[in-house]
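Most newcomers find our protein records easier to grasp once they have seen one. The structure tokens are whole numbers drawn from a learned vocabulary of backbone shapes. The record below serves as our worked example for the rest of this section.
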Amino acid sequence: MLISLLDVRKALESEAVVPCFQPIVELHTGNLAGFEVLARWQHPSLGLILPENFIALAEENGLIGELTHQILSKSFLAASALPEPLSLAVNVSPIQLQYASLSRQFYQAAEDYGFPLRRLTVEVTESALANNLENARKIATELREMGCKLALDDFGTGYSSLTHLQALPFSQLKVDRSFVKSMTEKRESRKIVAAVVGLGHSLDMMTVAEGVETEEQAGILLWLGCELGQGWLYGRPLPAEHIPDMIAASPQTLSSPFSASGGSLTAPRLEATPTQRWAQLQAIYDGAPVGLCFLNKNLRYVSINQRLADLNGAPVAAHIGRTVHEMLPKLFPRVQPFIQRALQGEAIVNLEVLKPSPKHGEPDLTVHSSYQPAFDEAHEVIGVSVAILDITQRKQTEEALRATEEDLRHLMELTPQIPWTLDADGNLLDISSRWEQLTGMSCEQARNLGWLEALHPEEMAPTAKALKEALNTGQPIDIVHRVKTANGKWKWLRARGSPSYGPSGKIVRWYGGCEDIDEFKEMEEALHKGSAGTCSSNA
């Protein structure tokens, strides 16, 4: 589009160049944060003319000051009633950062229309800093002292230098639209965006992404930690009369927030900056009661906590950059297949592995290992997160308990009684195998109240009544009854037991045993008959 200097002069004389306002929103809420002011010129015959077609002519011919004055005045007038905390962002031409009068120009325009400079962000491109950094620093400092915020615009596209970030008092870092546009297709662009956002947060700067046109782009930006965004997804630049409608519009929340896990699409709210979240995660990482590490795709240690380093028998620093095979040559063949599966995207959890002890001559450790694939923002596996829990002591305790239980069971089998265990409601939980030998009824059949089926019909009701009374009162169980033996005969038993109480004072178990009193009952019956016979003779 061919625009002449005369056209530009006429546009300024007629004040045809006007500000348009593009929404800037909080990515995680969709709420309006403010507007960027963009100059627009509606030519009578050529139609809409964008800044790149007339700004250069204004700069080259000394008209940029007048152009800036008109845009600032109209913007501040339109935004004078802008509610708190909404803000404005305006661009400064590179050549203007060489003008000593720039800060006074901003101050006077804001004063004339009552716009507070603390709600103004002045955007500066890196090219504006290349010619005279000292002069730019002086003007930028004056703007900051007046209350303005400074944003470094189009970072990464021009003379990118960390010196600029260090030298000037920037509070915002803007991600250029070219990277935002291509980051859904190009991993390199995603990496650049991630680096810019990470750099901004590490320097305690707010990050703003330009050219956000799709929810996918917004979701990735949100996941990467970018706070603010602007672009056609949130609204095109519109004249001042549309400001009330843009303020009243509903928040632009994401319908499908991005998730790097590939699972449910839920993005975290950004209550903390990535730097703060990293510090929090590092504290959790170091304080975790399990061994943790992260391996890259070449199975080299990227990070490791002290607990796992101790389990491996080497300092943390000795692991970084070295492979698992180098650090654990004996263990590596056992775990390599599982790590490789994790690199293919499969999660491996609770794998029990024998791990060589870090102390020479001591037996292997028993550990639970988990291998979780780690995904980037495009759901590509970039490494494996490893968790190791030492369960050696638990396994030893379980083995000791198992051995003790076996010993107790053998002792129980040797006793002439038939030990049993009831729950708090009187249901049989366990009984010695001697019960099956005696009655022919299996232990499984006897569970709960099944053992009552072995009782003599005359004793079933009295036994159930006596048991119920003991359960209700907590008094010891002491019941005499007959059971049918495996050969079909009836045998007298005496069941005695006592309650066991839990921490709350309630009965949790009953423990006892059945004693064979058949011979005693026979003797008792014989004595009873003998006594009855003597009484009859005396009569």
Remarks:
- Confidence is low (pLDDT under 50) at residues 260-271.
- The CA atoms of residues 14 and 72 lie 16 Å apart.
